[in-house]
Amino acid sequence: CEKSTDAGLTWNQVYTGIPHQLTACFCPSRGLIVVGTSEGLAARSSDYGEHWDTTIIGVASSVLDHISFSDSLHGVIAGGLSTLRELFAVTNDGGMSWTRYDFVAPPLTGIAMLNDSVVLACADGNIYRTTTGGLPSGVPPQPMIDLSVQVYPNPTPGASTIQYVLPSATTVSCTFTDARGVIVSSTAPQIQDAGTHTQPFDGTLLPNGVYYFTLSTTQGRATGSITVQR
After folding, report:
1. Burial per residue of 191-220, b for 16 or more beta-carbon CB atoms within 10 angstroms, e otherwise
2. I need a surface site. Which of 6, 127, 171, 179 has the fewest CB within 10 A?
3. Distance CA 209, CA 226 (A)
4. What was the pLDDT predicted at 22?
5. Is 21 exposed, middle or buried (0-12, 13-18, 19+ CB in 10 A)?
6. What is the pTM of this model?
7. CA atoms within 13 A on the CB side of 95
8. Which long-range contacts (CB under 8 A, 24 or more apart) does 189-192 make?
9. Distance between CA 57 and CA 80 in Å, rounded?
10. Which residue, among 118, 143, 121, 141, has the nearest Cα to 131 in the 3D structure?
11. How confident is the model at residue 58 (pLDDT cuts 50, 70, 90)?
């Protein structure tokens, strides 16, 4: 993998640590890079390619050669499992986790995610369009849910706490973004019991401004904002 910091005039090699051929690459936002590999892996870097995290999406014989994002959170990745079977996966947390679907179709030749609902795909000389964010027909996008979210203090000079209530046990992750949609921090998914929980926010090293958070669960998601003001 190579990267450029001068609009492509010069390139420097970057060691990814991924033992497979990189077959697709997309930069959803500044500093964030998502790649697909020839062995069914997706990899993500949030620091301009210095460090990478990988996620197994397909089997070893699947080539993930199409990636597209509409913003720093919503994206799709696709590749071939066989001649008439395609792998398709959707993320709503910037590539930290993916939901995979397989379907019968000719090999894809291109894909574009226009927003968090509309995805275009090219295959066999045709253009296909979906308005479900890449999800199969009948599978709704992740709904908004009420988690009784409270943030204190808000505004904050740096540190703040998000309090929320889970109606039942579920997997929870949290993503923080700035006003441009760039991820500034995130948490790994973890199983939490029903009841009241807290998520700390550390904005001591962030500039003044409004930051947004998304609490994602298996039942849906809740969002809010935190203002850093000194």
Report:
1. eeeeeeeebebebeebeeeebbbbbbbeeb
2. 6
3. 8
4. 87
5. exposed
6. 0.58
7. 31
8. 189/96, 189/97, 189/216, 192/166
9. 12
10. 118
11. low
Structure tokens at 6: 């001068």
Q: What is the pLDDT of residues 181-224, one digit of tens each?
A: 677 888 888 889 999 999 999 999 999 988 888 888 877 778 88
Residue type, 176: F
Task: Please tell me the distance from the alpha carbon of residue 226 to that of residue 211, in angstroms, as a whole number.
Answer: 5
CA-CA distance, 63 to 22, in Å (whole number)?
A: 9
Residue identified by tokens 């014989």 is: 61
Cα–Cα distance, 96 to 111 (Å, whole number): 20
Structure tokens of 1?
A: 């993998």
C-alpha distances out from residue 133 to 55, 59, 96, Å = 20, 23, 17
For residue 196, what are its two tokens? 């009241």
Amino acid at 180: R
Closest to 17 measured CA to CA, from 43, 40, 38, 39: 43
What residue type is assigned to position 43 of the chain? Answer: A
